[in-house]
Amino acid sequence: MTGQSITQFAVHAGLIVLGISFLLTAWRVIKGPTLPDRVIALDMLVGIVMGFIALIAIRTGYTLYIDIAISLGLVGFLATVAFARFILSRKLRGGEDGSPPDPRPRSLPQPLPQATLAEPAPLAPAPAAEPAPAKPVLRKADQTKASAAKVKIAKAKAAGKAAVVAETAAAEGARKGRKPEVAAKPARTVRPAATATPAEPVQPAKPAKAVKPARPAKPAKKETP
Amino acid sequence: MEILLALVTAALIFVGAIFVLAAALGINRFPDLYSRMHAASKAGTVGSALMLIAVGIHAADIAILARSLAGFFFFVLTAPVSAHLLAKAAHDTGYPLSDISVQDDMRKDEEKV
Q1: Contact at 8 Å (CB) between A41 and A29?
Q2: Which of A128, A192, B67, B90 is deepest in the core (most CB within 10 A)?
Q3: Number of domains chain B is built from
Q4: pLDDT value, residue A72
Q5: What pTM was computed for the model?
Q6: Cβ-Cβ contacts under 8 Å for B23 (sequence gap 6 or more)
Q7: Nearest by CB to B93, which of A14, A66, A92?
Q8: What is the pLDDT of residues B40-91, one digit of tens each?
């Protein structure tokens, strides 16, 4: 009997102390100036609730509560890890903390768009001309990357079509029984037209179709007789 | 024997409650995210883990003690990992240290590189 009363007294005292610490930690969750403060306080709250569950298990005698505590700890760990990844992916908001935020994450992305502006000339100036607040710098970088990727794709398509046209011209020249030199000349004339146009990603495909079948046919007829 | 078991259980509960209270005080009193994390991840973890062990000892059953020890080790192993991950994420994002902090070694490494 005395042993049970001792444990009951300890459980009551522990519940009171845990309640006080729970309120203190909840105050940090409410007050915490930054998001990581709140996240670490929530992690602490999970630990305190595990203590609560353990005390309730002692008081009621249902030891199955231990499994609930273990699963709660697992959930709290996963939640903290997910919050850490979220904080890592999210950029620091200005004025979230009382002190001025660190200038490093904002000063770094600025030279990047300028470096990427030089290569994709036509599409990049439109997003770069907008005034640059701190947040969407990453999005602009992504846009410039996307535009560079589009230009590259357009280049690849134009080069591929030029190669195809040159091959078809060579094949036509071979069908007509002419010399292979004739097939080489239209290939030379076509390729500068394809490589000069990559500044405009969409257009070179259409004039290339219109021009290329016409050009290799004419010089082939003119030179061979 | 029963009284001894009850005394051990009560001692574990008291010590765990004191640890948790110290962690709660530290998480309110410390000036900085990175120092609050120490209080939360060390003292709070030990407090809850001691209460889990108290459950196992109070039940006086080997299966329940094994489960409580499993929960103890799981919680003690995962809490520092999550706290470290959170601190590293906050430092990489650029949350500043408090004004009274003396040294930031990770900042120096970044400047060197």
Answers
A1: yes
A2: B90
A3: 1
A4: 93
A5: 0.60
A6: A21, A44, A47, B39, B40, B42, B43, B44, B47
A7: A92
A8: 899 999 999 999 999 999 988 899 999 999 999 999 999 999 999 999 999 8
The beta-carbon neighbor of B74 closest among A70, A85, A87 is A70
In chain B, the percentage of residues whose pLDDT exceeds 90 is 62
Contact at CB, A2 and B3, closer than 8 angstroms:
yes
| Chain B interface mutation, best of A8, A21, A48, highest count of B Cβ atoms under 10 Å | A21
User: For residues A93 and A108, what is the distance between their CA atoms, to the nearest angstrom?
Assistant: 16
Closest residue of A to B33, CA-based?
A37
Interface residue A164 vs chain B (CB under 8 A):
no
User: Which amino acid makes up residue A154?
Assistant: A
Please state the ipTM of this predicted complex.
0.90
Chain B contacts in chain A segment 98-137 (CB below 8 A): 99, 101-102, 104-105
Residue A208: predicted pLDDT: 43
Domain range holding B35?
2-112
B47/A58 touch (CB, cutoff 8 Å), yes or no = no
Enumerate the domain spans of chain A: 2-89, 125-223
Q: Which fold has domain A2-89?
A: Helix Hairpins (1.10.287)
Please choose, from the candidates A109, A31, A95, the residue with its C-alpha nearest in 3D space to the C-alpha of residue B95: A95
Chain B contact for A42 (CB, 8 A cutoff): no
- Count, in order, helices (H) and strands (E) of chain A: 10, 0
Any B CB within 8 A of A172 CB: no
Chain B residues within 8 A of A20 when measuring between CB atoms: 21, 24
CB atoms within 10 A of CB A184: 13
Contact status, residue A120 vs residue A147, Cβ threshold 8 Å: yes
Distance CA(B111)–CA(A119), nearest Å, equals 29
Test A36 with B89 for CB contact under 8 angstroms.
yes
Consecutive 10-residue averages of pLDDT for chain A (225 residues): 86 94 93 89 93 93 91 93 90 56 45 46 47 48 59 66 61 52 45 44 44 45 44
CB-based contact, A70 to chain B, within 8 Å: yes
